[in-house]
Amino acid sequence: MVPVLKAVGIRLAYGIPVFLLVTFIVGMFAELMPGSPGAAILGDQATQEAVDAINKRFGYDLPPFERYVNWLAGVVRLDFGETLFSREPVIELIGRRLAVTGELALLALFWSLVVSIPLALIAAMREGGIFDRAVTAISSAVIAIPGFVTVVILALIFTVTLRAFPATGWVAFTDDPLQNLKYAFLPALTLALTETAFFYRILRSELVGTLREDFVLVARAKGIPVPRIAVRHVLRPSFTSFVTVLGLSIGRLLGGAVIVEFFFAVPGIGGETLLAVSQKDMGVIQAVVALSVVVYVVLFIIVDLAYAWIDPRVTVK
Question: Would you identify the CATH topology of the domain 97-310?
Answer without folding.
Answer: MetI-like fold (1.10.3720)
